[in-house]
């Protein structure tokens, strides 16, 4: 395979020498960065907000730029402290205490962030829910976690089956003139009236912080519990990988309903005292470029699906905007196709840094760094302090270039502490000889770069060859007519499986036999004969999660006429 290598960037980075740091790194060193190292008093909200609000030189710095179609606001660290204190008092007055699960179910708004920090300040466990969830999805998660409280809006309240959830005795409604009776509280007016001072509830580093349900790409979402100790890794990866520095303006495009939107939309940036941009509303290329320009964003964290959509909007659009402040771009959530990396080079004159991690890992694990060469299509190398390996099904480490289970030596700071209500599932991640087994398939090259191949269950066995769907999808994307591709294995009596590709075409492209043949030949020549899809099917859209991941299990179910399973996280 032809690997395109992009040389290291020039500049003053937080992580200057990867190899050296990776050899000697000790996580306990990071503890010194937090005020609890001296005081012994732990709470992530204090470290992310109050600590800076109490520093004369930081308190007036903008912590949050919030904008959507109707609102355009900014809040300093000092204001964030007061407002989250008001949220904490509001919740405390309603009887919420340490360890209670408090769900946040509302569209992005400043209040969403105050509510999250308010809940953390009283020691509650936050359960973020994506605003597009329908009743079934909301019910499943509240039931599974025995939620005690929820913060929501009048519109979304219609999807919260309050009467069927006996544990859910506190419902904060964020609207106008909310009638207070039974479990219902008027969140906004209580917030406005509440005291803006609050004595933070100090917790143990191992106390619950956040309960995140996974994206549901491969099956029913799992409730992943993270603890305050995770801040160590949020902070350090925000330094090394996001490369956040004094004066940066940072924008993470992920919704807080997903782990990227909390670990790196909230915790990472604020633990490092960075100005954070939040843009509400739906995606449009113009809107996104405008956001980058208007806030003079310097560091931008997004996802392959978004980059692909920007790419298909055409290179002319981006030329209308002044993006000269941008210096660092990152991606997560799905494999980052080499095609997209090369497009980033072209239009932004910057490298897009792929990062690999999962809800379960809580923070970044395998990444590309400014100071390191990028091999387009590789997710990079493990962060210092983390050991990753490719292991076989018995847990033996495999040599370079052998495809196998992507596994991590357990015990990194932000590792999940359990799967809520499902200890058995939790234990199943650690069955191979103490390794944490990710469920992803990958290989490592001679230089220690990791290459994602697909979900273990998605790897295709065709005529005795193992083919990772990602490689085929990436090759398909290089074809000028193709904008998106999802590849599955389809059972075949002769070959075991054959490769079937679902493809969406650029606007204006017509499906013809020639085009089909051309696409097949393109993959055959660019990759290999056995990797070329025997079957091609064209679709206007591919099934995706709301966080933008292609749902191959749904493609497979459609193809084989099987039940599609839990679709709560599927985009409409
Ligand atoms: P579920 O576990 O519910 O099926 P999910 O695995 O998509 O959903 P997440 O925790 O949001 O839920 O996503 C983690 C997965 O996303 C990883 O296991 C991996 O398959 C994929 N992923 C994340 N980042 C990358 C990346 N940089 N390259 C390739 N794949 C990635
Ligand atoms: Mg997963």
Automatic annotation (TrEMBL):
GO cellular component, one term: cytosol
Gene3D superfamilies in alphabetical order: 3.30.300.30, N-terminal domain of ligase-like
A molecular function (GO) term: acetate-CoA ligase activity
PROSITE patterns membership: AMP_BINDING
UniProt keyword annotations, A-Z: Acetylation, ATP-binding, Ligase, Nucleotide-binding
Pfam families noted in UniProt: AMP-binding, AMP-binding_C
Source organism superkingdom: Bacteria
A biological process from GO: acetyl-CoA biosynthetic process
SUPFAM superfamilies cross-referenced by the UniProt entry: Acetyl-CoA synthetase-like
NCBIfam families xref list: PRK04319.1
Alphabetized PANTHER family for the sequence: ACETYL-COENZYME A SYNTHETASE, ACETYL-COENZYME A SYNTHETASE 1
Family named by the database record: Belongs to the ATP-dependent AMP-binding enzyme family.
Protein name stated in the entry: acetate--CoA ligase
Native organism: Salibacterium salarium
Gene name tied to this protein: acsA
């Amino acid at each position: 395979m032809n690997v395109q290598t992009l040389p290291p960037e020039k500049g003053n980075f937080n992580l200057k020498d990867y190899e050296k740091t990776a050899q000697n790194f000790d996580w306990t060193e990071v503890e010194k960065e937090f005020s609890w190292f001296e005081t012994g008093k732990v709470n992530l909200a204090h470290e992310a907000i109050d600590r800076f609000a109490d520093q004369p030189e930081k308190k007036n710095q903008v912590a949050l730029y919030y904008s959507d179609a109707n609102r355009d606001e900014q809040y300093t660290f000092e204001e964030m402290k007061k407002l989250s204190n008001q949220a904490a008092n509001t919740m405390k007055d309603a009887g919420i205490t340490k360890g209670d699960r408090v769900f946040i179910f509302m569209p992005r708004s400043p209040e969403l962030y105050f509510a999250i920090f308010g809940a953390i300040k009283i020691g509650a466990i936050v359960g973020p829910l994506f605003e597009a969830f329908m009743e079934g999805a909301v019910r499943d998660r509240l039931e599974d976690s025995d939620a005690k409280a929820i913060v929501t809006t009048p519109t979304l309240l219609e999807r919260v089956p309050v009467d069927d959830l006996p544990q859910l005795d506190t419902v904060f409604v964020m609207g106008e003139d909310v009638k207070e009776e039974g479990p219902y509280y008027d969140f906004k007016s209580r917030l406005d009236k509440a005291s803006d001072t609050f004595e933070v509830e100090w917790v143990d580093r191992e106390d619950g912080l956040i309960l995140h349900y996974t994206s549901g790409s491969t099956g029913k979402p799992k409730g992943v519990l993270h603890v305050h100790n995770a801040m160590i890794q949020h902070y350090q990866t925000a330094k090394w990988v996001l490369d956040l520095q004094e004066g940066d303006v940072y924008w993470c495009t992920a919704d807080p309903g997903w782990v990227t939107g909390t670990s790196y939309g909230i915790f990472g940036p604020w633990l490092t005292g960075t100005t954070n941009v939040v843009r509400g509303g739906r995606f449009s290329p113009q809107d996104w470029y405008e956001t980058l320009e208007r806030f003079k964003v310097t560091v931008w964290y997004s996802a392959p699906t978004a980059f692909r959509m920007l790419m298909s909007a055409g290179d002319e659009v981006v030329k209308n905007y002044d993006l000269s402040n941008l210096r660092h771009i990152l991606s997560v959530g799905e494999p980052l196709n080499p095609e997209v990396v090369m497009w980033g080079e072209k239009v932004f004159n910057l490298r897009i840094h792929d990062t690999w991690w999962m809800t379960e890992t809580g923070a970044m694990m395998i990444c590309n760094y400014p100071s390191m060469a990028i091999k387009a299509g590789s997710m990079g190398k493990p962060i210092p302090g983390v050991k990753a390996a490719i292991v076989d099904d018995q847990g033996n480490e495999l040599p370079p270039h052998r495809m196998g289970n992507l596994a991590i030596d357990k015990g990194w700071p932000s590792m999940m502490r359990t799967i809520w209500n499902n200890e058995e599932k939790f234990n199943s991640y650690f069955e191979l000889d103490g390794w944490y087994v990710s469920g992803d398939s990958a290989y490592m090259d001679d230089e220690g770069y990791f290459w994602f191949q697909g979900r273990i269950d998605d790897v295709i066995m065709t005529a005795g060859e193992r083919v990772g769907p990602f490689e085929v999808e990436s090759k398909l994307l290089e074809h000028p007519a193709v904008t998106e591709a999802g590849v599955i294995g389809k059972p075949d009596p002769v070959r075991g499986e054959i490769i079937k590709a679902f493809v969406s075409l650029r606007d204006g492209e017509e499906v013809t036999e020639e085009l089909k043949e051309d696409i097949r030949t393109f993959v055959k020549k660019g990759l290999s004969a056995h990797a070329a899809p025997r079957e091609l099917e064209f679709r206007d859209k591919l099934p995706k999660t709301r966080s933008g991941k292609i749902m191959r299990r749904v493609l497979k179910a459609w193809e084989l006429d099987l039940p599609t399973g839990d679709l709560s996280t599927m985009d409409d």
